[in-house]
Specification:
The protein is of the alpha+beta class. It has helices at residues 43-46, 120-130, 153-159, 161-166, 243-257, 267-278, 302-305, 359-381, 401-404, 455-458, 490-500, 507-519, and strands at residues 52-53, 67-76, 79-91, 169-173, 181-187, 198-202, 231-232, 239-240, 280-287, 291-292, 384-387, 396-399, 435-440, 446-449. The two termini are 38 Å apart.
Length: 520
């Protein structure tokens, strides 16, 4: 295993040295037919939402037969999301959709209609249709324990209750042999976890908008150090491999682990999967309240997102932009600038209604769009005292949501810096997930966590509970949220931050920020 470089006293950095033998947490499963898994699910009968595809002649590429138009629309509870492919089409002959090993493909856990992740509603539909026999449901990572009873449909339902309820997969990782801590106690409701195989329950990250991700995996374990690379933290020797290398390793480990195919991917299949994933851009395109997210001059949707520039360290909130050397700008998301006019006015207005909006609906549409604009302003600029967050350069930093989500118009982190915002804390633990007590080998101090995060990769005490900052586009399609699915909706996400950092949102501010996140 590659070793972490020493940290400077001036700034805490997440140098994520990673094991090539790590098991991927997000990818695996299903059939070549898409997100419904190996068995075809009748959307009308189960309530699963099938994607609506734009009606146009689909461009083709040599050797491709089953293709769709580049812009794919999928319904969700908030409206519609859009996936745009820079390749000009979505090629369902790509090995991303190919079953391996136990019958899973990447598409089993990363479906078009689910924001290229997986949702509990889809999981339940597949379970109901197959009585828990779809390839999605394996004991190795889908069940709460590898020893779970899977002999009957009722037993399987109990074994996969976390997958069914929150779309969580079990990731088994050991405490590193050189860790600065040991495992002092385990409270596992399933009687399995130990220092050799901690049970960690995590959501599949979406396989879209990957262009904007500097860290790969929730705990960063597929983000590899490369001393010869130019992708380095400012003022340090912590340099990282290219995204092609990181995502290639990720895809291969997914097939070996989640699809239980030890031979792994051929070079051709691995490269094709990475190219496919990196061609995808997803975002909400229609909101039930705000209507078209490209209306009245706004630039929502995936097509606009695909035009966004990204490079390692762009608009970094710690050190400024790595290429232009401009200072960090907290005006990170600008998709709804055109809706800001009159956003704080209490007078009724129809100024933001589209030309074809019925007069009776114009005021409500304008009000909804003004709410989104106010939410964008809150996200970018509302002051937050970011206290006691491991990974930040100081114990207290005055910033905003944009401080951690600093990538322009994507909301990811432009460097592989991971943070602990407290999602893993014992006080947030639900009774259906394990709780681990870790003890510092030097000081004897203890901490309780539901998931040590980066600390299981680095072995460092200070890394306990640190996770990547995910991209924020297309949120509405892939509830629940956080790595552990503990926030059932976006209102719960806002409530968590409001409480954690004592922001003091008014009910209207919380509603505005929720409306904005829903529109991303």
């Amino acid at each position: 295993m590659k070793k972490f470089p020493p940290l400077s006293a001036a700034r805490v950095r997440a140098a994520t040295a990673l094991s090539l033998a790590a098991i991927l947490a997000a990818c695996g499963g299903g059939s070549a037919g898409g997100s419904a898994g190996a068995s075809t699910v009748d959307a009308a009968a189960t309530g699963a939402i099938a994607p609506a595809t734009a009606t146009a002649t689909a461009p083709t590429s040599p050797g491709s037969t089953a293709v769709q138009f580049a812009s794919v629309l999928s319904s969700n509870a908030s409206g519609q999301s859009e996936t745009f492919s820079s390749a000009g089409f979505i090629d369902h002959t790509n090995p991303f959709f190919k079953p391996f090993g136990n019958g899973r493909s990447c598409a089993s856990c990363h479906g078009e209609a689910e924001g290229w992740s997986v949702t509990p509603a889809s999981v339940l539909a597949r379970f109901t249709q197959s009585s828990g026999n779809d390839p999605l449901f394996t004991g190795s990572d889908g069940a709460n324990s590898p020893l779970a009873d899977l002999s009957t449909a009722d037993a399987r339902r109990a074994a996969w209750n976390l997958l069914l309820a929150r779309g969580l997969f079990r990731i088994g990782l050991p405490v590193p042999t050189n860790a600065e801590y040991d495992l002092a106690a385990v409270d596992d409701p399933y009687g399995y976890a130990s220092s050799k195989d901690l049970s960690l329950f995590r959501r599949p990250l979406p396989t879209t908008n990957l262009r904007f991700s500097a860290a790969v995996m929730w705990d960063g374990r597929e983000t590899y150090l490369d001393p010869a690379s130019h992708l380095c933290f400012a003022g340090s020797t912590s340099c990282y491999a290219s995204s092609d290398i990181n995502y290639g390793n990720q895809a291969n480990h997914a097939v070996q682990g989640h699809a239980q195919f030890p031979a792994g991917l051929s070079d051709a299949d691995r490269n094709a999967i990475v190219a496919f994933e990196q061609s995808l851009f997803s975002a909400q395109i229609f909101d039930n309240a705000a209507g078209s997210l490209t209306g009245a001059g706004a630039s929502g949707g995936a097509t606009s997102l695909a035009k966004q520039t990204f490079y390692f360290g762009i608009n970094d909130s710690s050190d400024g932009d790595y290429q232009t050397h401009a200072a960090f700008s907290n005006q990170v998301i600008r998709a709804f600038d055109a809706w800001s006019a009159g956003a704080n006015s209490t007078a009724p207005s129809t100024a933001l209604a589209d030309a074809d909006t019925p007069p009776a609906n114009a005021a409500a549409l304008t009000a909804a769009r003004q709410s989104v604009a106010r939410g964008q302003a809150i996200f970018n600029g509302r002051p937050i005292f970011i206290d006691n967050v491991a990974g930040m350069p100081a114990a207290s930093v005055r910033g905003s949501c944009a401080t951690c989500h600093d990538t322009p118009n994507a909301g990811s982190r432009s460097t592989p810096l991971l943070f602990n915002i407290g999602v893993d804390a014992a006080v947030r633990r639900s009774a259906d997930v394990p709780l681990y007590t870790l003890r510092n080998k030097t000081s004897g101090a203890t901490v309780q966590t539901t998931d040590p995060g980066l600390a299981l990769v680095s072995g460092r005490w200070q890394d306990i509970g640190r996770f990547k900052t995910p991209a924020l586009r297309g949120l509405a399609a892939r509830a629940p949220y956080f790595h552990d699915g503990s926030a059932q909706d976006l209102a719960a996400v806002v409530a968590f931050y409001n409480e954690r950092f004592k922001i003091g949102f008014t009910p209207q501010e919380a509603a505005d920020l929720t409306a904005f996140l829903r529109s991303l």
